[in-house]
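Why do we care about 3D structure at all? Because function follows from shape, and shape follows, mostly, from sequence. That is the central idea of this module. The next example makes it concrete: a single protein chain, its amino acid sequence, and then its structure expressed as tokens.
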Amino acid sequence: MADAKVIPFDDDRSRTGASQRPVRRRPGAGRRRPPAEAVPMREVPAGAVPGQSEGKPTVGAVTGAAGTTGSVNGTAAPGPGTTAAGPGTGRKGEAPVGGPGGWDRRIAGGLAFLRRRLTGDYEVDEFGYDKELTDQVLMSLVRPLYEKYFRVEVKGIENIPSHGGALVVANHSGTLPLDGLMMQVAVHDNHPADRHLRLLAADLVFMLPVINELARKAGHTLACTEDAERLLRQGEVVGVMPEGFKGIGKPFSDRYKLQRFGRGGFVSTALRAGVPIVPCSIVGAEEIYPMIGNAKTLARLLGFPYFPLTPTFPWLGPLGAVPLPTKWTIQFGEPIATDGYPPEAAEDPMLMFNLTDQVREQIQHTLYKLLVQRRSVFF
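And the structure:
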């Protein structure tokens, strides 16, 4: 494998190689589907509803195809699997469970999903993002790790805007980039406006087989200025970790000490797009793979930026690659507005330095605060 090359986030050159991706539209995608067949109203015997004459259909006392019940005498009645308060409903993009028809709907939805995948009746955007596959499959695969293993606690999700572009800037750690995936699930599952986080990744991600395709379908794209600015102008929430390999590959002795944030390329991009910067602090990822050494010679032979040595890896083989079950906290901080600056502000090096330092200091301060508050690494 060739040496891993990191394209600086503040590099203004055009995307090449891994980032160049034509628009792919699957056959039949975008076709308008006919509405679901209406369910005819049924006859209700006289006396079943007060004041209803015999043989007349009762409006609102009809059970629809989706298994929900309409209103009776103008009062809404919840359908199976739901209550007035809403419990029993599934996560975003999932059918409700717990009612008599819940599993039927899930099975029907799964079969419809398979049919669309087999017939090519779905779309991906110009970056390769497959929203349906991400919602239905990829998030479901990562969610058990998020909920059960790392038990992620999310704070300040309301600081991500409900609409329009935003740049989420987070610390990076953990030897393997699991923190980016957990942050993506946190936004996907918790934001009240159903926002999706589009992560910017190093080119090494797009050089690895299988990982390359999965990353693109999950909405990741190359960490270069052109891609980031296009996504932000399209109103997407974009995530970036400016520390890069310096953060994720730092020794365990330097845990929770932020590394250099580059030359402020993410600030320049946010200024040009006029979107707010949302600092994000992640606690818990530093301890999943305590990196006590770095086999630099082996890393160069494999084309990796580093080759981690931990208390369990590579000594225990594949078992040593299992992360420790630490307790995570992800906190999104107060957004920093950029729309009040003039267009030429993106070329002001002093302003970029000040804003970069402001974002970095806010993340570092929040990390220290969360570390003081947590009871244990694992609880």
